[in-house]
User: Fold this.
Amino acid sequence: MQPTPDQQARLTGIGWRADLPAAAALAALPAARLARVIEQHRSGYRVDDGSSEFAVQSPAAWIRAGFPPQDRAAVGDWVALALEEDLILQCLPRFSALKRAAAGEHYKQQLIAANVDVVLIVSGLDRDFNPRRLERYLVLTRGSGAQPVFVLTKADQSGVALAQAAIELLQHLADTGAAVLTVNAKDPQTRESLRPWLHAGRTAVLVGSSGAGKSTLTNTLLGEMRQRTANVRETDSRGRHTTTFRSLLRLDSGACLIDTPGMRELKLTGEETLDRSGFDLIESLATQCRFRDCQHEREPGCAVQTGLDSGEIDVGAWSNYRKLQTELAHAAEVLQARQREDRGLPRGSTQKPARRRRDEKFRP
Ligand SMILES: Nc1nc2c(ncn2[C@@H]2O[C@H](COP(=O)(O)OP(=O)(O)OP(=O)(O)O)[C@@H](O)[C@H]2O)c(=O)[nH]1
Ligand SMILES: [Mg+2]
Ligand SMILES: [Zn+2]
Assistant:
């Protein structure tokens, strides 16, 4: 089915573009209606078909245990519905997907939002502010295919000096091409600051800890108090997990905005890389060590240690880089084993490979 020009105009308001990968897939489904997932609840989905919003049922296969969660629809997904029934037939291909590994022992991916152009990474300029966590958000965002923007809220409370210091602490993230903004999320002026990323037909998702100000920003961008917000705890600036489900809302600008519940854990899925996530300097220095397999611990001629000693590399960023590297390698192995299993092959070893001997490769 292809949308008629009339339907097409209405669908544009919820982010439809004729050049989306979903459009080609839809063309091959003659007996289907198109809609976008705007809410995800435990009990099911709500969708918007451009004209109205309604609840739909999931395909039976999605409910079965063992069905890969990332293959179920998430907020932002385009879905093909049955003609006569409010039932999802299938989820259409995505151009981007923001994911994390779900908390818990077993490896499982969790889709946060699909088909997003921009990820607005929200952090309060209070005790919520943590450059290490923001580096982690950047890794996940780079893995999604969407563009990252850091939005530091509560600048009205922090004072100018603290806001400026925070911007400096995120310079290595800004150097990757990500914008870093400081805002008062309650101030209508914030709509102007975010305008460059909220064009008609584009979709942005807000992510960040509980209490960071995602719903406050949503309300300011909407120009009305649609989302519930709640004060943070004074002692540690923690929020109260006020937003409980993800939802996609239409803005006047013609852009779509997804508000999400605050996230506690941000585990990597193993599909990411650490490229363009604020570690470029570390990675480039690491290629200049005397030994090609330098572990950057106590070896002579280690460019990373020299960089740490001189202050060129931030100690916190370095230890986070190591942590993310280890976590990524482990997640990638578990993921590979899972994929082998899905193809009916034995899991293989998920043990870490032994370290190579240091003197194997001496580079003059
Ligand atoms: N002064 C000031 N207060 C803010 C700002 N941003 C958020 N707040 C306040 O911070 C508290 C938490 O904001 P919420 O918007 O509920 O936070 P959230 O990120 O949606 O939190 P969850 O829904 O729990 O994930 C509220 O009391 C807001 O009024 C800001 O820029 N300035
Ligand atoms: Mg909220
Ligand atoms: Zn080294």
Q: What stands out?
A: The CA atoms of residues 153 and 183 lie 5 Å apart. The first strand starts at residue 33 and ends at 41.
